[in-house]
């Protein structure tokens, strides 16, 4: 039976029936895997954002002034870049693939946390925090916003 509250223990089933831990060694390996996947999630998110910025900057014509910001009604505090390179450019396609891979990793991490094991929860949260520190800290000025909606 699946736990519906947080519990602490070495017996946990993660994501698949075959990924069960029954000893402290297998539990430690599972926690290490959750930690590494969390780091990888932050790394892939950083790569996706940097690739998007590079694809926009490489096709942008700097001899012309930048386009005016959108009206305050549509995006009060956010500036969105216009679509560059057409709707079906290779850079947009590659960015979409990276987004899909990163979304899959994120959902897998969420499902791992939903095992309600306290160790798994801590491993994922610490991995995300350390991954953010290593891969995404200090470049907040380079964020590209596709959609001004906070829930997108």
Overall description:
The chain has helices spanning about 25-60, 90-115, 120-135; strands spanning about 10-15, 20. By secondary structure, it is an all-alpha fold. The protein is about 50% helix and about 5% strand. A hairpin with a 6-residue loop joins strand 1 and strand 2. The chain is elongated, with a radius of gyration of 20 Å. The protein starts with 11 loop residues before the first strand and ends in a 16-residue tail after the last helix. The chain has a domain at about 20-60 and about 70-120. About 15% of the residues are buried. The chain is built from three helices and two strands; from the N terminus they run E-E-H-H-H. Helix 1 runs antiparallel to helix 2. A two-stranded antiparallel ribbon has the order 1-2. InterPro entries: Cop_transporter. Belongs to the copper transporter (Ctr) (TC 1.A.56) family. SLC31A subfamily.
Topology:
Elements: E1 12-13, E2 20-21, H1 24-59, H2 90-113, H3 118-136
Antiparallel strand pairs: 1-2
Helix pairs in contact: 1-2, 1-3
Number of helices: 3
User: How would a textbook summarize the main sheet?
Assistant: 2 strands, antiparallel
Q: What strand line-up does the widest sheet have?
A: 1-2
Number of strands: 2
Oligomer: single chain
Instruction: Label the overall shape.
Output: elongated
Listing every helix as H and every strand as E from the N terminus to the C terminus, the arrangement reads EEHHH
The computed structural class is mainly alpha
Spans of at least 5 consecutive residues whose pLDDT stays below 50 are none
What share of the residues does DSSP label as strand, in percent?
Answer: under 5%
Helical residue percent? 40-55%
Distance separating the two termini: 34 Å
- Overall mean pLDDT: 78
Radius of gyration: 20 Å
């Amino acid at each position: 039976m699946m736990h519906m509250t947080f519990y602490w223990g070495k017996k946990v089933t993660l994501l698949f029936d075959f990924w069960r831990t029954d000893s402290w060694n297998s539990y430690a390996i599972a926690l290490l895997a959750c930690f590494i996947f969390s780091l990888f999630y932050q790394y892939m998110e950083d790569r996706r954002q940097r690739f998007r910025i590079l694809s926009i900057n490489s096709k942008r014509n700097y001899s012309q002034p930048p386009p005016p910001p959108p009206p305050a009604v549509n995006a009060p505090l956010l500036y969105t870049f216009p679509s560059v390179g057409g709707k079906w450019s290779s850079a947009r396609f590659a960015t979409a693939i990276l987004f899909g891979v990163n979304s899959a990793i994120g959902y897998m991490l969420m499902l791992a946390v939903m095992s309600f094991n306290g160790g798994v929860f801590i491993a994922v949260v610490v991995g995300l925090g350390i991954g953010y520190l290593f891969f995404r800290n200090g470049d907040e000025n380079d964020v590209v916003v596709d959609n001004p909606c906070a829930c997108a």
